[in-house]
Amino acid sequence: MKTPMWIDSHCHLDAPEFDADRDAVWQAARAAGVAEALVPAVCLSNCAAVTACCARYPGCLPAYGIHPLYVMAAQEADLAALADYLMRHRPVALGEIGLDAYVPNVDFARQEFFFAAQLELAQEFDLPVVLHGRRALDLLLKHLRRIRVKGGIAHAFNGSRQQADMLIGLGFRLGFGGALTYPGSTRIRRLAEELPAESLVLETDAPDIPPRWRSGQRNTPAEIPAIARELAALRGMTEAELAALTTTNTRMALHISAMYRHSRK
């Protein structure tokens, strides 16, 4: 039987947690059937590491952006530098960007400023975006309605069905990963089961958000097939059907084609 091929739509393979064994981590992911992974930056100084990671590992695709929890260390000049990076390199998306009201004592107005500015860059460079939204989805949606972009992926989605439908209406796919493997994650599991099939993509957020069988441990992109088995069971699909579905959804969300992928190898 042919092994299903998967895409990890959100994996920080460049993170320091992988410095000791990054080659082995990606080799294990490929052996598990993970053919591609989106590697998003979190700050301007991180972009070079993402570029190097994607150059080293065939199948890894870059996104560049300033994460909402990193904006306190960012300067407004970083936006111009990010624009220059987008121009000189060829990312598949702008991200990881968004809003995060979960962490206390953050400058939320500053988050909004950088989020809106990066949405405008996504417009300028005609790029989809990779969204991070925690306890701020309504405000995130307000900005997305005002500054229209060409869709993308709402990473680690944990909102309501209404918010999900609004994001889908704006051209976004929704990322599901390790959180759906916990029986107590009833809302996420219900959404993963009931949302339109064409809205779903798989992710690990490695090294973060490990599935239940790796709780408290480092997550890796090799966990995608096991996470997918849980989602397939929820939806009454075969693994092969889910692999084909989520691969198509991810490529459509990021507007990536075979020509683009082959040109980077």
Report on this model:
The protein has 265 residues and is an alpha/beta fold. The protein has a single domain, classed as Alpha-Beta Barrel (TIM Barrel). β4, α4 and β5 form a beta-alpha-beta unit. It starts with 5 loop residues before the first strand and ends with a helix. The C terminus is likely disordered.
Shape: globular
Number of helices: 10
Based on secondary structure, the structural category is: alpha/beta
Total number of distinct structural domains: 1
Please state the average pLDDT score: 95
CATH class: Alpha Beta
Count of DSSP strands: 8
Give me the strand/helix succession: EHEHEHEHEHEHEHEHHH
Q: What is the name of the CATH superfamily?
A: Metal-dependent hydrolases
Question: How does the major sheet shape up?
Answer: 8 strands, parallel
Low-confidence stretches: 258-265
- CA-based gyration radius: 17 Å
What order do the helices and strands come in, and which of them pair?
Layout lengths: L5 E3 L13 H10 L2 E7 L6 H10 L3 E5 L12 H12 L4 E8 L7 H18 L3 E6 L2 H10 L5 E3 L6 H9 L2 E5 L9 H9 L5 E3 L21 H12 L3 H16 L3 H6 L2
Parallel strand pairs: 1-2, 2-3, 3-4, 4-5, 5-6, 6-7, 7-8
